[in-house]
């Protein structure tokens, strides 16, 4: 045994105890190592990722460093504006009063400001108007704008006429940021006044009857709305109105006016997107009746549709209106429309070029089926009903049509006398047609273009011989046409409408 081994403490212990001491020392060394690694990792991680955990401190530090390096920064400008504002605050009313609003609106926190290159949202720009250099000596250029609360309550025409008071916002055009804000504020200004008011389409609803999903876009009654129940007597006339429009009788011009009237007079205009089916099956009729019973009133439903009797489906019968024209003039217009369309649509004629280019006079004089058979009765079924007998040129169909007009049609206009027809509509249906005559006589530019685009292309008048033939074949149609004209004259006399 060497001298080193003799003096070793471990060697003095028995062999089992010596092993236990070695194990204990190893455990203590491992624990101390783990603690040292943990503490070192925490320190290194905090130093390395401090910027990621505290981005605001990094931004603030960069701002302060920029402030020291540059003699004039946006922070100093902000401090100067606040100082000027504090000095003159006693002499100036609150900025909301400068804008014409209340003290509670458009308040912004004192710490909110903007830096160069940072674009504010539009709402912040509106509120920032009162934070501009409106209190310094460089004020130039006053822009008069109403406050936000005033513009929400007033129409554009009221604002531009000056009926809504407004205060001045003073801007400094030499300041770049103020120029930017000035441009943004100009975008919020009310547009220039027009000769005629603008209209929304909030009450105009399109309905494709063949699409079940289209029902979700209809204005159905909600809980609390007045119900439309079946009664033994007629309720308010303003409940429901149906315009089962006759084709090629100026109905598209009338619809464009109804779209504006629905916004002016606050009723729902429901327009069917099914144009080519006027006589329907019983189940289809019942489906329309059930859906219209659930629609919020008042409403006006317009569609190319032969008369439907709602009482046959145990439902309240709505009122009807319509407009017709000279039967031969309507026939000629439809004849050429099927071939060439008008300014709004281009028709693809299914027949041959020879048939397409045939004039209406040749069609009538030569006795072609299109003119002699299918064209002699068209208007009467829109008033007679859905029965097959209503589509036959008979005295029964004529009498049935006259009976339905007296019972269910509150008014029927004449295209050749549209102005007086609308005057009657205004008298009998003021809730729907108030203002219709003015819209008819003074249409806006868009309406003029639309009316011109509904004129059928390449339309030619028939010869005297062809006219005589068709008027003889259209005997029942002309009987009904003169009946409607006489009825319109009586209504004009009753309401004191003079030509």
Automatic annotation (TrEMBL):
<dbReference type="InterPro" id="IPR027417">
    <property type="entry name" value="P-loop_NTPase"/>
</dbReference>
<feature type="transmembrane region" description="Helical">
    <location>
        <begin position="21"/>
        <end position="44"/>
    </location>
</feature>
<dbReference type="GO" id="GO:0000139">
    <property type="term" value="C:Golgi membrane"/>
</dbReference>
<keyword id="KW-0325">Glycoprotein</keyword>
<protein>
    <submittedName>
        <fullName>Uncharacterized protein</fullName>
    </submittedName>
</protein>
<comment type="similarity">
    <text>Belongs to the sulfotransferase 3 family.</text>
</comment>
<keyword id="KW-1133">Transmembrane helix</keyword>
<dbReference type="GO" id="GO:0008146">
    <property type="term" value="F:sulfotransferase activity"/>
</dbReference>
<feature type="compositionally biased region" description="Polar residues">
    <location>
        <begin position="146"/>
        <end position="155"/>
    </location>
</feature>
<dbReference type="InterPro" id="IPR007734">
    <property type="entry name" value="Heparan_SO4_2-O-STrfase"/>
</dbReference>
<dbReference type="InterPro" id="IPR005331">
    <property type="entry name" value="Sulfotransferase"/>
</dbReference>
<keyword id="KW-0472">Membrane</keyword>
<dbReference type="Pfam" id="PF03567">
    <property type="entry name" value="Sulfotransfer_2"/>
</dbReference>
<feature type="region of interest" description="Disordered">
    <location>
        <begin position="137"/>
        <end position="173"/>
    </location>
</feature>
<feature type="compositionally biased region" description="Basic and acidic residues">
    <location>
        <begin position="64"/>
        <end position="78"/>
    </location>
</feature>
<keyword id="KW-0808">Transferase</keyword>
<feature type="region of interest" description="Disordered">
    <location>
        <begin position="59"/>
        <end position="123"/>
    </location>
</feature>
<keyword id="KW-0333">Golgi apparatus</keyword>
<keyword id="KW-0812">Transmembrane</keyword>
<keyword id="KW-0735">Signal-anchor</keyword>
